[in-house]
């Protein structure tokens, strides 16, 4: 094992899209665990849109010049607690670094399921999948046969939403994504019926063409113009599941949302946002739902894996720019 640990630290507040110069890779000796703690070598890292939100000077945001945090999977390589035996694979939140010292209460020991790769615990079985699952089952309360529109359909949450919606018996599935190649992937692999590239014109026209009969549910990862278009396309008793607003995270002066809110009344539409952190208790339920489908092959994994911790910043910036299809995951050399 190497004796040098790397951490990624944010050194400047980005204006618009972050760049590599807003971050530094900092070297230090691999830390030693004290009594009651264990040393984890991280294997897989998640980089997420919420990290971008935390990079601004906002309450609860990242502090400059300290290691960033994020979801990660690692292996216990030295332990001074019986709660974390050496060799155990754990989930924890000290990401953006090669090594972490953790205590048993700071980690989740992962169940192992036959034929399910570890990366699934950062994609469909992790917070990404849980977000999709909560959105469909608790917020939309999707019923069999209902038609959906999903914005940001080719990302981690978007692909999980499409696949889960299919398994839950959704009707017509319409999505939006940032390229023709992503649209083709979604139709071919994920089971979407129609997908448009949102660069191809006004979202209201593209959505009308893709869903001429309207939809019952809108799962929104993007906000802005696509949200406005979806309000127009929703049927009576439609539901809007507000998951994220990625069209704004890199925009220093985002336009205020403009949609016809009178339609919320006229069509008895319910719009509800949520944070997945309030639904952690559904983790086991998600596993019970998704694992048998993963094992049978009915549920595929949509992941873009970037090799090498040294590429974690590029992977993060690339994700913000749409270079991923499915959940973006960074894989370490020892994974
Ligand atoms: P992701 O979708 O895998 O990656 C981000 C994607 O956003 C990119 O691949 C890019 O794809 C798209 N994008 C970037 N700029 C855009 C723009 N201006 N307009 C439209 N699309 C744009 O990321 P994720 O982790 O699955 O997250 C998706 C959304 O869910 C984010 O808004 C995130 O904040 C939110 N989220 C919320 C919760 C919660 O608890 N509520 C939890 C997890 C995630 P294209 O090529 O298609 O543009």
Name of the level-1 CATH class of the largest domain: Alpha Beta
Low-confidence blocks of residues: none
Instruction: Summarize the main sheet.
Output: 7 strands, mixed
User: Into which percent range does the helicity of residues fall?
Assistant: 25-40%
Bound molecules: NADP nicotinamide-adenine-dinucleotide phosphate
Q: How many distinct helices?
A: 9
CATH 2nd-level architecture of the largest domain? Alpha-Beta Complex
Total domains: 2
Could you tell me the number of beta strands? 15
- Cα-to-Cα separation, first versus last residue: 13 Å
- What's the name of the CATH homologous superfamily of the largest domain? Medium-chain alcohol dehydrogenases, catalytic domain
Structural class call reads alpha/beta
- Which descriptor suits the 3D outline? globular
Structure explained in plain terms:
The protein is an alpha/beta fold and 335 residues long. It folds into 2 domains: 151 residues, Medium-chain alcohol dehydrogenases, catalytic domain (Quinone Oxidoreductase, Chain A, domain 1), CATH 3.90.180; 151 residues, Rossmann fold, CATH 3.40.50.720. It contains 9 helices and 15 strands. The strands form 3 sheets. Strands 3, 4, 5, 6, 7, 14 and 15 form a 7-stranded mixed beta sheet that branches. Strands 10-9-8-11-12-13 form a 6-stranded parallel beta sheet, with helices on both faces. Helix 3 links the parallel strand 8 and strand 9. It binds NADP nicotinamide-adenine-dinucleotide phosphate. The site of NADP nicotinamide-adenine-dinucleotide phosphate has 31 residues, from helix 1, helix 2, helix 3 and strand 15.
